[in-house]
Amino acid sequence: MNETSIRYLMSISEKHCAQGTLPPPGTPDNDLYLSILKDWDARKSAQILETNEAHPLLRVRAFLAAGRFQDANSVLRDLLTKTQADHELAEVYLEGARLAALEGQWRSALDLAHHALGLGPNSLSTLTLRNVCAIANFELGQLSRALEDLEKADALCKLFPYSTSRTYSDLLRIRILARDSGTRSARLRLDQQWSQLTESGRMTRDTLLSLIRTEIDLARIGQKEHSTWAAAAYILADAMGDELYAALGLFDLLHALPHGSAPWLEPLVAHAQRFNRVRLLNREVSVESPAGTSTGLPLSQTAVAMKLFAERAAPAATPAFTSLPRAKLLVIPQHRLALKVEPFTSKFLRNHKQLFDITKLLSEGPLPKNEFFTRIWEAAEYQAPVHDILIRRALYRLRRDMGADITSERQLIRLHDTLVLQPV
Predict the structure, then answer these.
(1) What is the pLDDT of residues 234-272, one digit of tens each?
(2) Sheet-wide strand order for 337-340
(3) What is 306-360 written as a DSSP string?
(4) For 119, which of 277, 349, 355, 358 is 20 to 30 Å away at the CA?
(5) In the predicted structure, residue 224 carries a pLDDT above the cut 60
(6) What is the rounded distance in angstroms from the CA atom of residue 217 to the CA atom of residue 351?
């Protein structure tokens, strides 16, 4: 690797994570960096790579974000043969550790991360490596070691408050808390995270996906219905061009729905097993032994939570997903959020309870105008000349403030392309 280019890449990363300052667009490296860590758009990254040469480490990150793991591995192998300086090798091993984690190879991820730490990486890379160690130890059931890794990352999180590693650390702590102290304490902490990230303006597609996946984990442990959250995880990851997490979203959705209720989903999940992580997870949830797999490895914490939900969750009415879920708008009433999927926007609507009541009601299906009015305004009788004005105003506010696609035709009110995430 060119010494100047690696130093430049480290400098823009550190400035971004420490100050929140992004590099200006206009060069292949800067444009690729922005597509990966500002837009969270793997398809845009792929378009940049088609016509431009970029720093090999940025190419690896773009491939990882898209789920193109063979391409990432090929670049890393080439870098290992050409890189000599320890601080550069540390970056190569860091990306190798991330690749191993994304493939569900938790012990390999730990080994590679520890090797990278021994090469004296810079502070920002050390923070990332501590997070890799923490998630790997967590999945291996070594919760105390995971907490030790997170404690070592704490001081660095303060140096880099705009780093995604800070959010990842906070959310992993919540998942550990749910296992150590129960979901009630974890629920309070997770709600605080939603509030902090929303009110600080730091909600990105990646942050949202991380929050949603943490909600799914807590729901499994608490044996709560969570199919709308699994569907949202798929929709969001698909919009980001992240094929691995889209595949995991489909796998999550299949296992959130009652067994045998979604035969249309099974071939899609079978295709999702082209990813090693999904394939390993499927093997884990399929084994009968609670201790681990035939290889002698313990079940990952994700698999443990999935099996707990499958074995203990009470039958519940679930949304009727009869085909691949699609939505342009995600609505989270309990957090007063309306999130446009693409291009991504996040609207925090603190004092708009009625709008969220309407989306929750119409998420059950279209309603005749008279029933819509009596249920929203809790009135005894619908009178068209008078009450139509109220209805028109409410629908206008939904379109203006929330960005909802809502129609009123032939006395029937219908909400389109919107997924309302149910509380868990």
Answers:
(1) 999 999 999 999 999 999 999 999 888 899 999 999 999
(2) 345-348, 337-340, 329-332, 418-420
(3) HHHHHHHPPP-------S----SEEEEGGGTEEEETTTTEEEE-TT-HHHHHHHH
(4) 277
(5) yes
(6) 29
